[in-house]
Write a structure and sequence with these properties.
Number of strands: 0
Shape: globular
Number of helices: 3
């Protein structure tokens, strides 16, 4: 059975976490459960500045 949950894109979620961590990339990576280098790759992939 499918649940009716609103899903956000990875890009939108990363931006949300950046706002939550006041732009601190190390904290954002920790919150996302990924390494800082993986976060940097996602930043480049999704053109997040």
């Amino acid at each position: 059975m499918e649940q009716c949950e609103e899903k956000i894109s990875d890009r939108e979620y990363i931006i949300y976490i950046f706002h939550k961590t006041n732009g601190n990339r190390a904290k954002a990576a920790k919150e996302l459960g990924i390494s800082r280098s993986a976060l940097y790759r996602k930043i480049q992939k999704y053109n997040i500045s």
